[in-house]
Amino acid sequence: MAEPTILDVEVTDEAITAELSDGRRISVPLAWSWRLSDATVQQRSNFRLVGDGSGVHWLDIDEDISVHGMLHGSPARPPRQVA
After folding, report:
1. Does residue 28 lie in a domain region?
2. Is the dihedral of CA 6, 10, 15, 16 positive or negative?
3. CA torsion sign, 35 to 37 to 39 to 42?
């Protein structure tokens, strides 16, 4: 069975919430995406659905989140700090 697709997404100061094609509304902590955590409200609102709704891409911060990652728990890893 294919996973549902994302119809819409909202980013608040606490969560990334997606409305799915199967009627579910799922959310993950904003901290799962360090790029979105550091982004402005304007940057968070500048997104497009990609892959026929299998994911979301935020243009200004080059961040991608998939429905698979949200459903199966795949937070983004922050970049390694160089000492």
Report:
1. yes
2. positive
3. positive
